[in-house]
Known about the structure:
The complex is a heterodimer of chains A (437) and B (1060). Chain A is mainly alpha-helical. Chain A has helices spanning 2-16, 39-62, 88-112, 116-137, 161-178, 191-205, 208-221, 267-271, 285-294, 297-303, 330-343, 347-360, 371-385, 392-399, 402-406, 421-426, and strands at residues 140-141, 158-159, 247-251, 304-305, 312-313, 325-329. In chain A, the strands form three sheets. Chain A has a two-stranded antiparallel sheet with strand order 1-2. In chain B, the strands form eleven sheets. Chain B has a 22-stranded antiparallel beta barrel. In chain B, strands 10-15-16-13-14 form a five-stranded mixed beta sheet. The longest helix of chain B has 18 residues, at 3-20. Chain B is globular and about 145 Å long. Chains A and B meet through helix 1, helix 2, helix 3 and helix 16 of A and strand 23, strand 25, strand 26, strand 30 and strand 31 of B.
Amino acid sequence: MKKIKIILLGLMLVVSACSTDLDQSPSNIASPESLTDFDGVLNAAYNYQTGSATPIAVMGDFRADNTQFDESPHNSFATFNGDVSTMEGDFFQPFYSALYKSILSTNIVIENSSNARHIGEAKFLRGLAYFKLVKVFGDVTLNLSAAPSTEDTSILKRKPVADVYAQIVSDLTDAKSALDNSGLSSGRASAIAAQGLLGKVYMQMGDYMNAESNLAAVVNGAGAAGLGLMPNFADIFGSGTDLNTEVIFATQISGSIAISDYSGTTFPLWSNGGDTKSDEDPITADLVNAFDAAGDTTRKNATIDLSGPSRIAVKYGSAGAEQDFIELRLADVILLYAEALNENGNSSSAITQLNKIRSRANLANVTATAKATVRTAIANERRLELALEGHRWFDLVRTGAVNAEMGMNIDSNYHLFPIPTSEIFASNGVITQNPGY
Amino acid sequence: MNLKQNIIVLLVLLFNTSLFAQEEYTIKGIVTSQADNTTLPGVTYRIVNTDKGGATDFDGNFEIKVQKGDVLEFSYLGYVKQLVVIEDQKTLAISMVEDNTSLDEIVVVGYGTRKKSNLTGAISKIGGDDVAAVQATRVDEALAGKLAGVLIQNASGEPGADPKIQIRAASSVSGSTNPLIVVDGFPISGSLATVNSNDIQSIEILKDAASAAIYGSRGANGVVLVTTKKGKTGKPKFSYNTYSSFSNKYRDNILKTGSEWAAHSRAEIAAGNWDVSQIDPAFLEYRLTGYENSPDEMSVEDFLYQTGNTTSHNFSMSGGTDDVKYFGSVGYQDATGIVRTQGFERLNARLNIDAKLGEKFKTGISFNGFASKRQIVGWDVRDLSRAYSVHPIYHTEASIAFVQALDQQAQALGLSSFDSGVNGGATEALGYNRSIYTLEPGDYVNDWHYGRANNGIGGSGDQGPAAKLDNSERTQRTYFMNINSYLSYNILEGLDVKTVLGGDMRDTQDYYWRGLMSDAKGRGSATNLDQTDVKVSSILSETTLNYTKDFGKHNLAAIAGVEFQSTTFRGTSLDGTNVPNTAVVNFSLLLPADIAVKERDETRVRKSIFGRVNYAYDDKYLASVSIRRDGDSRFGANNQYATFPAVSVGWNAHKESFLEDNDVLSKLKLRFSTGSLGTASFLGSYNSLSLLSPTATVYGTGFNIPSDVANLDLTWQTNTETNFGFDLGFLNNRFTLGVDYYTSDIEDILINQSVSEVLGTNAIKLNSGDVRSSGVEFEFSAAIIQKNDFSWNVNANLSTVNTEITDLGGLDELPRQPVGQSGRDVVFRNYVGGQIGEMWALETAGQVEMKYLEDGTRNPNNSTGEYYVIDQNNDGVIDKTRTVEEGGDLVKVGQNTPDFYWGLNSSMSYKDFDMSLQFQGAQGAEVFNIDPYYYGSQWGGRLVDGFKDADGRAVHNGMFVKGAKDNLDANVQDASYLALRNITIGYTLKQNLAKKVGLSSVRVYGAATNLLYLMADNYTSYNPEGIETTGDYNGPTTSGFQVGASPVVRSFTLGLNLNF
Lengths: 437, 1060
């Protein structure tokens, strides 16, 4: 009996002496300090851009005269007052959130990576992200740090548009030098994409001289890079052909990979009647008339379908959730080049470029040479060529044609979209709202 | 007289005396308990003023030699002493009555027990029988209204769902308010639901810091100590309890059917309240007659809700010898909920064994197993209620004919045909019906079969509620097992060492399926097949040294101990989409690319050391001191340890000489306690670290931005609490009143602070801020009538709680959080000087009248959904981002904590009948009830053109008009209620009848739950207690909004208790 008691007592002591460690960390997840190769962070930066695709597509076309919603509260896109801020949860907030995550990922790569190619791609993505943000919101917070302060809210103050553009230009210029064109075949950033985007940025800024030189380089270097206009307009779109010769850069979207932040209906479905909020005539009569006035049947038939009870889009076919979002394609570059040439006084070269697009669309050449006429021709061509790709509204704002094309007097405050109110709250007012909202 | 004669006389006298002296004879008898007629072993009996006596045996028998005139005294712990004068009885039948003065009642405190009279802290106790008497699916639900300071809110209303438990004030700004649950000394990782209410001996709630401080870092939300039944020496006793109940939802008829709507519409139009001038009269008539003539119309409420029923069986046995005692039980419960597809099933088993090994060793082992399956409604009830109640749920021949005729009428009026409204994607190949001309009886009815708002009487393009429910499923299975063993050794007299080793494991599986046919467009991306399996296992080892000693009038009890606990979480979750439409649903049928797999592997470790000394002098002057030091792996490397002290004192004034003989005041006890506790609140295992999570991208693995920013200083929240209390007792404690006033100061609060998305995450965790709370609790009990065959006891409790944020680490306010559903929000504000989780919104002055709707007949249950809003400062602008003080228009509209909550319990017994009533209520809380925004105005809300001007003002009266997505107070409703929670009437069969069938007691009872449930006038849904604990919910800072909560249930029960 004594032995048993001793054993039992011993057991008690042993059990109490269990040692345990208070420094626990998980074995299956990484921490930033442990990374040596920033491939994964760069991939995440690309992936975050997917969250901005549908919001900008919706803002670009539904705010303008190409498409429309028929149900409340989405029809607030068609009224130019503070009402559209009810849509922030559906569109503006996921857009903002996804892009800033992409920016933070690129900052991590830029600050820490030793791979020049990765840094180039990261700078491209950062430039692209800030470009989208500044087009939509105007002044925005400029974060270039991989570990922004959590306490100091002054870093959140919105920077003026000019400063943001300066940063974008700097990033894209660096990207252009650091990259080559091998990314074109895998959907990643490339030198020509950086240059094309740089040209587009200069156009948005109104700097036609710099725009022209960059866009010229792209148009002239397209052949060498393996790019060219697709002979058949309809072949540019759809999941099977989305890495075609015309696409310079597209945000890769796959049906089996979750889209970052945004969870609503995807952009092809908003315009093809796939959501009840826009299933009654999503395509405006105005767009139909524009196609008819231009006598454009090729693009009209490839873009919209009028055979049913409702005017719906067919541009993206049945791709639905698989359709990549085209950020930059050759036709867009050519049209911008034409516009830059025209603004810089070279109308004849401008119409040479314009006619490339027109002949692909089986339309007759434009022969006018008056600057204003050519300008209008290019603007109309842009509308028909790039319909439903998220460009229309931003083109109208950029060229100052908003009131003329929309047919009403719109306060310039409403050329921009509202900053998500959660940002205003979270920064305790350091981030301010856009006037009018 | 000479000496010889004296001696003879003396002898004769003595002899005679002994002859006259009564003979000693042996008296026998049996001692039973009056309450349930069971025999009582171990009852002490003695002849007063002698040392002759003994204790009753296993069967309650006793035998003693007595003489006439002796007084026999019977005493037993917890029972009133009985004195019997011996005349010449040969046998005695003693019936012991339970003592309700409970002066010597033992109360379980942390790591030990204490006499109730020596307690200095705020502890509430409830007996196991009171808990088992309430027919609830869970123990925690059964506690509602029974204890002061304990608020139980039936947050979801579903059977088997976790209620929200809050002891005193919320000690956490983010994170749950759930208290620590300790079962037989082991803190379990499961909830109270894993304990079978029939197994409970008593529940003690440690409310103040001094009582809970011994649990240190987990005690800040209060501690619930559950003690389960143990065996007693004696023959085995068996008990079988069963009940069966049926239930219904309490409130009816919130939604209107088509014909009711038509009648209402016609009346309103006739009265001129609606303006139908902008509608084509032919179309209007077509629509109204459509509503009226639609055959077999069924209200969605009638389809969704059903009569639920519950059956429960429980069997237990207990017994033992002096050396080994055991208690075992098995329980089973099966409930069908009141909402279609809702159900709950559970199985419990328990075995407690306590043994003595020789004189010095005591050991025991306890095993509890629990398995449950909860069938949760697979679809949001709020969304299901949006379907129009103008048609049946499944087509009949009449409804098909009607629909086709209606379509013809629509086309005759020049409207588009119903079939043209069908959306692309849902093809016949997938099994969808694309035309009303190919419908068969028995097919699901979808709203679009009846047209849409612009050409018929139907509403949405979605599938009907039956299709949604048939094609969705949500199940939660839980398996829980807890094993606990202890070994205790008596080193010296009064000094024991005890070691406890225990473990528990909880395995939860959550399964969710949403099938293709539930989506009207047949979109694979709208389908889900999700399964999450998490195993939480925890091992605890605790060693304590206990010393108890009485030195004369001094009583000392001390304890010192160390404790280690390690918890691991291991799990995987599968999220599948593009689920094919097959009869059997299985992950192997999905494409690998459509399944996202996540895994979880976490470990948390805690190390602690603690000690406590309790001292009592003459049972009058009481003091207690405790201290605990905890270290937890969840905190930042700089701050892993913290120390928590507590001290409390008490004075049993009624034992003082000046009150001892007072007949009226039998108890006067004053108590004071203060201490500090810590809590880790809502922290996950690795929140002080910054971790990248892998994700799939088109290019390969990507590393997502960490959702936490590394914080080495992340540490405990510290809660310092002070409690003042006094207990009064009158007339031998027949009436008692306990009053407690507490204040608590929480520092270094852990909050989920909203930050700008620029940081890559929208919230970070930090310790920042200070919250002060206070409250008063009253507990009153009265044994109003105590006669032989009639007794009536009442007890009542009332508690108040107030919280104020006093500091936010330099900020004036935490970032405001708009919280709600799909943009229909109110703004939750947490600012210095306010309460936690205040709801702020624009003040409305009524809904826009129906006559300004373009077409009021469009949707049954229609309301305009737009509200007149008051411009608080008359500046011509409605600013929903700023408060009135800041120049905007936001005002405070409510908060979800009640001003006070109360319970009233009355139990009566008359001869063999017993009746108990339990009332419970809460007053002063508000809830943001989102549902009416949906079934009221979802498809309506189109006001006539020209109603508003460019500023958003109504042209006819200049008032601003805003919609539901603009932070309105319109649906912030009063969540006060008063309920007759339970009424039970029971009848106990007479003892001799029971014995005839071999049972020692039989009781039948009938009960009703929520027989009466009064809600506030402005509350328009089914359950004012319901609040959302998922989605936008972020702890107490955003608590108080309700989305599709399951209704309050009224049920009727019939039950049986057998003991043998």
